[in-house]
Amino acid sequence: MRKLSLGRASHWRLGLILPNPDSEDKHTRDERNISRSQLDPMVDSGGKSIEDPAASLSGYDDAIQQDPSWLAHIAIVVSLSKARHMEAYVSNLTRQANPRASVALRDYFSNMDNAEDEIDSSLTEMRRLVVLGSEPFKLQMGNLQTWMSAALMEEKTSTDGFEDVVERPLKTAVCKRAMKILKKLTSNALALVNSYEEKVQINQ
Question: 20 to 30 Å CA-CA from 165: which of 3, 98, 143, 152?
Fold first, then answer.
């Protein structure tokens, strides 16, 4: 689908900020250079999601804070970055696995590959959103919501195979640490996507 031009007036009418070329570069750097220290603020120290998902991105500049599309965009980037980080982290734990845990890990990696593909598809769609409120835009938002919901479901079921695995450090690391945080991040990203879509609808 060919990308349509976005009018600055329509963004201001919706209360959104259309970045100028300089700020566009800044946003691109925000997406590309998310560091590990920026991945965890979306959940508190106990692994609970922050009640207001937007508050989880409070470390970003005002342009992002005031633009719900960029809040959703960066939240998806964070979710994808964390998913990849967690999969690499769990890969380093596989040598601890007994035969039953090895089967659970195979299922885990299969689910996580699917989740990453769906989040990546969401990010690609978010990068090429067309005219706000248009039929193509509504289709794109539907795709975003479907993919992020599917990714969250894949993450939630990725640890089902561990139900019959004995409680050991490997199970704790995967189920109670890594995935608990990742599911909260993806849930927050989905909430911000839904919030953006609702705000666009309200302002049409």
Answer: 152
